[in-house]
Specification:
Largest sheet: 7 strands, mixed
Distance between the termini: 18 Å
Number of helices: 5
Shape: globular
Strand content: 25-35%
CATH topology of the largest domain: 2,3-Dihydroxybiphenyl 1,2-Dioxygenase, domain 1
Helix content: 10-25%
CATH architecture of the largest domain: Roll
CATH superfamily of the largest domain: 2,3-Dihydroxybiphenyl 1,2-Dioxygenase, domain 1
Number of strands: 12
Structural class: alpha+beta
């Protein structure tokens, strides 16, 4: 479990269906009905090596979503092969990949280090721990919550913001839509990897193409 593992996933052949989000490698396959979704999910569940791997499958009337892990730093060397096998099964079952539908929404709760209280958030939300600084919905439906340290020297003692992790080709479109809806750009110094925006009241949100679009010249 390392940064190199998700970098290697992005560089692997045959994983073009997959988006590497804050929550790990994710693919969304469109289908025509709930019955088709159930059939596709059943076929994917039979992919060798998937059972017991920690993967999460969710489905609706028009899609099946597969998350190979619940966190980007939990991607392993085995995952590109699993991703290719799942994509092959999805195509054979009539699933149509939709990278634009893959996203991970996280709530960042910031406080000075002595006030960080991840145990409270796990308890009040009924969430499980994934790492020391976060909490995840065991059902896989709700947003991940993670803790962020604030600089103790600053006057602000607590804050919250939302992180929206999307595919690299979707981030700028999502940013433009948010601005058109009345938002404003607060910080674009990391664009096109990420933009920090705010609504009219000043509530902040980060639209991030990282890690899916975090490509470096030496990769």
């Amino acid at each position: 479990m390392s940064e190199q593992a998700w970098i290697d996933f992005l560089r692997a052949d045959g994983v073009e269906d997959w988006v590497v989000l804050h929550g790990g490698a994710t693919a969304v396959f469109r289908v025509g009905s709930l019955g088709e979704a159930a059939s596709l999910a059943s076929a994917i569940a039979r992919v060798p090596g998937l059972d017991g791997s920690g993967a999460l499958l969710t489905m609706g009337s028009d899609r099946v979503t597969v998350r190979l892990t619940r966190g980007v730093y939990r991607i392993e060397a085995k995952h590109p092969e699993l991703a290719r096998a799942i994509s092959e099964v999805a195509r054979s079952e009539g699933g149509v990949v939709d990278r634009s539908a893959a996203q991970e929404v996280s709530v960042a709760i910031a406080a000075t280090p002595q006030d960080i209280d991840v145990s409270f958030w796990r308890a009040v939300l009924g969430y499980d721990p994934l790492a020391e600084d976060n909490a995840i919905d065991p059902l896989g439906h709700g947003s991940t919550v993670w803790m962020q340290d604030l600089d103790p020297s600053k006057r602000l003692r607590h804050a919250m913001h939302v992180d929206v992790s999307v595919a690299r080709e979707v981030a700028e479109e999502r940013m433009a839509a948010a601005v058109a809806a009345g938002g404003r750009i607060v910080d674009d110094s990391e664009a096109p990897a990420a933009w920090i925006l705010a609504d009219r009241a000043g509530n902040k949100v980060c639209i991030a193409a990282w890690p899916d679009g975090a490509m470096k010249p030496d990769w």
